[in-house]
Each structure stands twice: as C-alpha cells, then as structure tokens.
Design goal:
Layout lengths: L1 E5 L8 E5 L2 E3 L4 H12 L2 E2 L2 E6 L6 E6 L3 E2 L3 H10 L1 E2 L8 E3 L9 E3 L5
Parallel strand pairs: 5-8
Antiparallel strand pairs: 1-2, 2-3, 4-7, 5-6, 6-10, 9-10
Length: about 110
C-alpha cells in the first residue's frame, strides 16, 4: 500500500513515498527515520492545561514527558481533563504519573504558587 508523507523534521519538507519496503524521496537519515516511525507506529507529544483546585480562572500548562502512541491521544486527553492540580505547583512537577500505564507522565510546564 502506497503512503505519502511530508517530513517535518527539518525545514526542507521532503515528500516521502512509502510503498511496501521501498522508501523514496527523503534526503537525510533523519527523514528516513521519521517516516519509518510514522508509517509503523506514529507517536505524538501532547500539550494542554489542567484545572487548579479551588481556582475558577487559573489553569496550569502541562505536557507529556515522552511521545505517546497517536491512537491514545484522546484517551490521555480525557485523563488530563479529569485531573485537578493542587497549588503550589513546581515547574516540571509530575502531576499524573504513568498515565494510562503508557510509561509517560503528565508534567507541569510552569510554576504556580
């Protein structure tokens, strides 16, 4: 099955075509590695916010500590949206440990005192 990708690793934006075991159009090894990952097991980072307990208008920005499988994005977002953090929050503090048993944490990206 033929698949087309636009590489996002560098500004070149190579158009890469994957047809079975044949990969054409990449100009560097980073592009080759990107399309191999993307075509077999796509992963993404998530950035979002969590509510802060007892605060009406205050949220804390968060991110995943590692990439997660693309198929789990909506499930992880459900967990993030259910969570309420307690102040004080330190930068890079683990707020949700091992979310959905993916070996990935949800961590804060801002200090909130």
């Amino acid at each position: 099955m033929k698949q087309e990708y636009i590489c996002i690793v560098c500004p070149k934006g190579c158009h890469i075509i994957v047809d079975g075991d044949n990969i054409n159009g990449y100009t560097c090894l980073r592009g080759l590695n990107y399309v191999k990952q993307e075509s077999t097991d796509p992963k993404r980072n998530i950035t979002s916010t969590v509510l802060i307990e007892g605060e009406d208008d205050l949220v804390c920005p968060v991110r995943t500590s590692l990439e997660i499988p693309k198929s789990e994005i909506f499930n992880v977002m459900k967990e993030i949206n259910k969570f309420k953090a307690k102040k004080p929050i330190q930068m890079n503090q683990v707020l949700i440990k091992n979310v959905l048993n993916l070996d990935v944490d949800i961590i804060s990206t801002k200090e909130i005192l």
